[in-house]
């Protein structure tokens, strides 16, 4: 993890330290341990308390997401409030992740998922990006910069696939030091930033 502050006007992320599937221990108020934010989020949806056992560690985010579709969900579940609870727990319980979030500086945080328009950018960068907004709120609570407005030239700032026939946006892959995307299942590329 880098300790340098991000100075660009956006910080695109997908499956990085800021993402829901990133492995990190999170405890809920009852002391149950989850292996990532996605598992905790899925547990909060459960109508029955005993169903939350399916999401405790070592269940990873992908497994949790799949399991949640098979269980009864709370009638009054509020996804935005649940996500705020999860993000607060993730970053207050994990100091290195807290520093990472603060060090994104004053960048607009955007989850660049082409398949998700509610929590992320969607395929056209016009999604609601609720996860990015909640992360910016959390960053402010931790002592960093608060909510930033999306830049007007965001489409220019988020790298596109370099293959002319493919309009897909790219996902930031911090582990490999750049943006990457398997586009249309036909080709794979990686560019450095």
Concise synopsis of the structure shown:
The chain has 193 residues and is an alpha+beta fold.
Topology overview:
Blueprint: E1 10-13, E2 23-27, E3 33-36, H1 37-44, H2 61-68, H3 79-93, H4 95-102, E4 108-111, H5 130-141, H6 154-157, E5 171-173, E6 178-183, E7 187-192
Report what the structure shows.
There is one protein chain. This protein is globular. With 193 residues, the chain is of the alpha+beta class. The chain has 6 helices and 7 strands. The strands form 3 sheets. A 3-stranded antiparallel beta sheet has the order 5-6-7, with no helix packed on it. The chain has a two-stranded parallel sheet with strand order 1-4. Residues 171-193 have low confidence and may be disordered. A hairpin with a 3-residue loop joins β6 and β7. Helix content is 28%, strand content 17%. It has one domain (10-192): Orthogonal Bundle (Tetracycline Repressor, domain 2), CATH 1.10.357. α1 runs parallel beside α2 (61-68) and α3 crosses α4. The chain has helices spanning 37-44, 61-68, 79-93, 95-102, 130-141, 154-157, and strands spanning 10-13, 23-27, 33-36, 108-111, 171-173, 178-183, 187-192.
The tally of structural domains comes to 1
Going by helix content, strand content and strand pairing, the class is: alpha+beta
**What fold name stands as the CATH topology?**
Tetracycline Repressor, domain 2
CATH architecture label = Orthogonal Bundle
Major sheet attributes = 3 strands, antiparallel
The CATH class is identified as Mainly Alpha
Q: In what range is the share of β-strand residues?
A: 15-25%
Distance between the termini: 16 Å
Specify the CATH homologous superfamily.
YbiA-like
Mean pLDDT: 82
Order of helices and strands: EEEHHHHEHHEEE
Radius of gyration: 17 Å
Number of helices: 6
Give the overall form. Answer: globular
Number of strands: 7
Helical residue percent band: 25-40%
Low-confidence stretches: 171-193
With strands numbered from the N-terminus, the spatial order across the biggest sheet is 5-6-7
């Amino acid at each position: 993890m880098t300790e340098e502050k991000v100075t660009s006007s956006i910080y695109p992320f997908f499956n990085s330290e800021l993402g829901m599937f990133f492995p990190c221990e999170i405890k809920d108020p009852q002391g149950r341990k989850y292996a990532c934010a996605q598992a905790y989020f899925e547990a909060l949806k459960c109508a029955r308390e005993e169903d939350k056992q399916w999401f405790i560690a070592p269940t990873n985010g992908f497994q949790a997401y799949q399991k949640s579709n098979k269980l009864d969900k709370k009638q009054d579940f509020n996804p935005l409030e649940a996500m705020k609870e999860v993000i607060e727990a993730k970053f207050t319980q994990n100091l290195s992740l807290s520093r990472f979030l603060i060090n994104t500086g004053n960048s607009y945080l955007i989850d660049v998922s082409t398949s998700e328009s509610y929590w992320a950018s969607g395929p056209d960068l016009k999604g609601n990006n609720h996860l990015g907004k909640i992360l910016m709120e959390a960053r402010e609570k931790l002592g960093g910069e608060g909510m930033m407005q999306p830049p007007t030239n965001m489409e220019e700032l988020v790298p596109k696939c370099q293959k002319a026939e493919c309009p897909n946006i790219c996902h930031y892959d911090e582990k490999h030091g750049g943006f990457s995307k398997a586009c249309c299942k036909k080709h794979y590329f990686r560019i450095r930033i």
